[in-house]
């Protein structure tokens, strides 16, 4: 595969929710995590911890608490139009969690980072972005989700299944797999709509 330039990777990275069943080699996952580990973090604490899930049986166990709490959330927020389609696609992906080739739970060690929530999350999400860009450069699609990362979305059960200790917080999870079909670049607003120079 020819190398992808950094700017091309940034401009073409998008969420993908349909994957081929093909497994992702362990050395490829390692390369992706090496890229994640090069991210900046507050005071260079590097508080990230990654739990990589390949085993379909473990993924099947994770599906129930994540799907249950996700559906509870959807029930409280009826939607229509485009957002309904987005959430329907997300629900379908979640139902098929066991067949996703790899899931990476991106966590942060609360004992090794600031007490400030802002600093904590600003110290994990650059690593997550590196992870997704590296996967993209290697031809692997990704989807960032928070289905299992909060107390109202299955975190206590998810942490128990994965053996994640109490002082570690699940920030998000990333579904990974080879894309089932080709996708164009993501649609985004023109920068003129949200950019301000010198003052608002």
Topology, element by element:
Blueprint: H1 6-12, H2 26-36, E1 48-53, H3 56-75, H4 81-95, E2 102-109, H5 117-122, H6 125-137, E3 141-145, H7 155-162, E4 168-177
Antiparallel strand pairs: 1-2, 2-4, 3-4
Describe, in plain words, how this protein is organized in 3D.
There is one protein chain. By secondary structure, this protein is α+β, with helices and mostly antiparallel strands. The protein has a single domain, classed as NADH Oxidase, CATH 3.40.109.10. Helix content is 40%, strand content 14%. It is built from 7 helices and 4 strands. It has a 4-stranded antiparallel beta sheet with strand order 1-2-4-3, with helices on both faces. The longest helix has 20 residues. The radius of gyration is 17 Å and the shape is globular. The model has no long low-confidence stretch (mean pLDDT 88).
The gist of it:
This protein is α+β, with helices and mostly antiparallel strands. The protein has helices spanning 6-12, 26-36, 56-75, 81-95, 117-122, 125-137, 155-162; strands spanning 48-53, 102-109, 141-145, 168-177.
